[in-house]
Amino acid sequence: MLVTGATGTLGRDVVAVLKERGHEVRGLSRSRPGYAHADLLTGEGLAEALDGIDVVVHAATDGRKDVAATAKLIEALEAAGKPQLVFVSIVGVDRIPLGYYRDKVTIEGMVAAYGGTSLRASQFHDLVLTLAKALTKLPLIGFYPAFDVRPVEVHDVAVRLAEIVEGELPAQPGDFSGPQRRSTRALWQAYLTHTGKRRLLVPIRLPGRIFRALRDGAGTGPGGGIGTWEEFLVRKL
Ligand SMILES: NC(=O)c1ccc[n+]([C@@H]2O[C@H](COP(=O)([O-])OP(=O)(O)OC[C@H]3O[C@@H](n4cnc5c(N)ncnc54)[C@H](OP(=O)(O)O)[C@@H]3O)[C@@H](O)[C@H]2O)c1
């Protein structure tokens, strides 16, 4: 099996979980020592990285050129005898009009046309932590956009991906998110309590379709994961 984005937040766990479950795994990176080297944007090194591979979990992203990178990957997969392909997308990409999400919808279509499958996951706890740290940049007040989320533990997403590659590849495996639907306020408050920081939390209501969709719960998903935000904070901080 090959994991693209193997040095990333999710990819690291995907490699570890697949190995724990007895799979032979090759991780892909552009330059990190100890990995198969290839660049999805140029295609350089891809044919060698795909040699003998039967399944690809595609978890690489550069945040900007993922459509072009995935097109190169699919071209290389076609030339390599069509191994199975599982792509990691995001819950709500078809409802939340962000540019990065539009690209995800395009890529899901490319993956489906290839005969692969896409798992949509909700926001990782690691991303929520990055946002929580940004919230406490100001000394007294933390402004935050108010909506509900259902953040998920990357390990749980990695296990779900392993289950998918080990079973029948469903055309649409459904959305996958964390165990608890929480308000952003509750998440930030838990972070403040855990770190002993004090901030007056002030909700801001942002106009526009993106925040309307988020307020409608478009990014929450149905659950399925086990790990909670509080457990993540205890382990990570
Ligand atoms: N973060 C979230 O909350 C979240 C939620 C749901 C779904 N997702 C999706 O899950 C996937 C993984 O996200 P992540 O947060 O784990 O990403 P990440 O930490 O940013 O890692 C992405 C990896 O992609 C690799 N990469 C970037 N450009 C590449 C290129 N041209 N060729 C080859 N490799 C390249 C990089 O590896 P090297 O630098 O070693 O080459 C990097 O480690 C993404 O598709 C993301 O949209 C993320």
TrEMBL record:
Domain NAD(P)-binding span(s) in chain numbering: 5-95
InterPro entries on file: NAD(P)-bd_dom, NAD(P)-bd_dom_sf, NAD(P)-dependent_oxidoreduct
Superkingdom of this protein's organism: Bacteria
GO molecular function term, any single one: aldehyde dehydrogenase (NAD+) activity
Species for this entry: Dactylosporangium siamense
A Pfam family: NAD_binding_10
CC per GO annotation: cytoplasm
Family matches, as SUPFAM superfamilies: NAD(P)-binding Rossmann-fold domains (SSF51735)
Name the record gives this protein: Nucleotide-diphosphate-sugar epimerase
